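Whiteboard transcription, Tuesday session. T.W. wrote the structure tokens on the left side:
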């Protein structure tokens, strides 16, 4: 069995070069990507021109603008960079099927048994560097027997021995004296480290099999993926290289710096296992049709859609999936594209349920100079559980009727949702609360099941219409008044039923229930109004009379 070989790729300018690719080379100036830390904006990535100006990662924006006034800045988009890294992971699959992401700017590839296909490990790195140069990406690579060693070689092989300087011994000196001291010092004693090699195609370094110790000996301790505090403490003790740690007793290192340092060291040297976990393949359900000549008639577009839907549903059915959101994309002859989406109230793999929804959207399509390609994609899918009918004939018929009735409602919700939006259609379910306004909860119809049981009947009649409590002008006593004023009208009570005492939910802080315990009354007025009044006994708010609803 061949020795395990791991390839680590590092894209040091991933954020900036992603933007350069989007702008197609229109940026001919220093470019920096800024990360918002909450207190300030600092550089998270930059292009080669910005590095040539002397800018560094983590530098605040105010210092950057003073050093380089012509700098172009953009805010960091973490989600877009993560999506771009996924695209690079799929690209790296051409070199090995075992590829994993190393967020935020790296990849890890198990190339065991694959390097000979590219002329050896050196040929593999040359091919990979050439691809990255064609893509406009800066890459640095490292190959070793372990993941930790490959990671360290990719990031620190170009600057061996660069240390984490604490500066404790000269922090109290004057700036000029400290500057001269740093220039005089060798890099092993806190001086300026060697310059970092840069370029668009850095082939990287290869550690021969079984030689992890010698390959890592001259690299800084930062190559062990340690925390900043641990690196600073090691630097104060003079342990700046990985080789300085390999000869130290493990027990003493664990007592002083914790087990994390020992684990990282053993992983880099191969004493502790560290597997490469490739990302799971995300299934994509999409079909497309490329036309020999552009089309523009609605009947032609619909004919193409009808030919695309059956194979899409067949793919979903094979994987036991159902689609909830479908996206239709039409590509025009003038290199423009129009997309539209439709949603279903229930996931389905039946093309008959998709056809009427897409048919309703045909009027929104602008053919322009003609459509030469159509694409239908299942944007959101869910697992469908297979149903098996069993039992007597009547039971099978009843089950079929229930399923067909459910599909009718779901199709109706889907068609209305295609017009006004699925989030606008709601249904009510009983709520588990004794508070009147919480006796029912509102749920989206597309993402909830209808209530199958009987609606629980209230022990006391509830008003047909309820609103937020409105103040009533009446004597501040718990006895029901004969006359009161509400909404600018003088009311006279001719009949009443109650009281019904309700207490607030003590585990929740409801602003409307800060008035304490309530006594509810059903009051009939001389004007014919049947109101729902209550007296609040007072809590964090003052006591008084309020009106909350009206009976039919």
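and on the right, the sequence the group agreed on:
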């Amino acid at each position: 069995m061949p020795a395990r070989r791991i390839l680590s790729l590092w894209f040091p300018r991933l954020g900036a070069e992603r933007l350069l690719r989007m702008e197609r080379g229109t940026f001919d100036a220093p470019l920096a990507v800024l990360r918002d830390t909450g207190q300030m904006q600092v550089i998270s990535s930059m292009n080669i021109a910005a590095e040539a100006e002397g800018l560094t990662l983590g530098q605040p924006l105010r210092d950057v603008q003073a050093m380089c006034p012509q700098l172009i800045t953009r805010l960091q988009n973490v989600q877009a960079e993560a999506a771009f890294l996924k695209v690079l992971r799929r690209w790296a699959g051409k070199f090995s099927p075992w590829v994993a992401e190393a967020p935020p700017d790296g990849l890890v590839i198990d190339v065991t048994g694959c390097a000979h296909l590219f002329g050896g490990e050196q040929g593999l790195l040359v091919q990979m560097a050439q691809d990255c140069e064609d893509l406009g990406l800066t890459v640095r690579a490292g190959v070793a027997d372990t993941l930790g060693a490959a990671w360290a070689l990719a990031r620190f092989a170009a600057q061996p021995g660069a240390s984490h300087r604490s500066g404790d011994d000269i922090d109290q000196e004057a700036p000029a004296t400290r500057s001269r001291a740093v220039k005089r010092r060798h890099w092993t004693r806190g001086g300026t480290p060697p310059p970092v090699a840069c370029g668009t195609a850095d082939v990287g370094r290869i550690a021969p099999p079984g030689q992890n110790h010698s390959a890592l000996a001259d690299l800084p301790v930062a190559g062990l993926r340690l925390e900043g505090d641990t690196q600073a403490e090691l630097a104060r003790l003079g342990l700046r290289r990985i080789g300085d740690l390999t000869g130290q007793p493990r027990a003493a290192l664990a007592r002083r710096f914790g087990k994390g340092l020992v684990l990282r060291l053993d992983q880099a040297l191969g004493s502790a296992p560290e597997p490469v976990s490739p990302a799971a393949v995300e299934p994509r359900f999409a079909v497309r049709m490329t036309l020999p000549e552009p089309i523009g008639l609605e009947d032609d577009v619909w004919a193409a859609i009808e030919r695309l839907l059956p194979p899409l549903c067949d793919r979903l059915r094979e994987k036991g999936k159902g689609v909830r959101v479908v996206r239709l994309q039409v590509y025009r002859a003038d290199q423009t594209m129009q997309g539209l989406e439709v949603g279903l109230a229930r996931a389905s793999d039946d093309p008959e349920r998709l056809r009427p929804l897409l048919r309703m959207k045909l009027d929104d399509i602008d053919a322009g100079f003609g459509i030469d390609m159509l694409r239908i994609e299942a944007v959101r899918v869910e697992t469908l559980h297979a149903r098996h009918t069993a039992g007597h004939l009547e039971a099978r018929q009843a089950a079929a009727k229930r399923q067909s009735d459910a599909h009718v409602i779901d199709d109706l919700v889907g068609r209305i949702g295609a017009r006004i939006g699925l989030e606008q259609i709601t249904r009510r379910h009983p709520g588990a609360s004794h508070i009147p306004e919480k006796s029912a909860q509102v749920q989206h119809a597309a993402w909830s099941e209808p209530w199958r049981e009987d609606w629980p009947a209230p022990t006391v009649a509830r008003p047909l219409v309820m609103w937020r409590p409105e103040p009533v002008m009446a004597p501040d006593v718990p006895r029901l008044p004969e006359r009161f004023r509400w909404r600018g009208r003088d009311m006279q009570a001719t009949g009443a039923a109650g009281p019904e005492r309700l207490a607030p939910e003590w585990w929740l802080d409801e602003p409307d229930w800060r008035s304490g315990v309530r006594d509810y009354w059903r009051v009939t007025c001389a004007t014919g109004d049947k109101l729902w009044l209550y007296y609040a006994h007072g809590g964090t708010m003052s006591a008084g009379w309020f009106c909350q609803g009206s009976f039919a």
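Someone added at the bottom: DSSP finds 15 helices and 20 strands in the chain.
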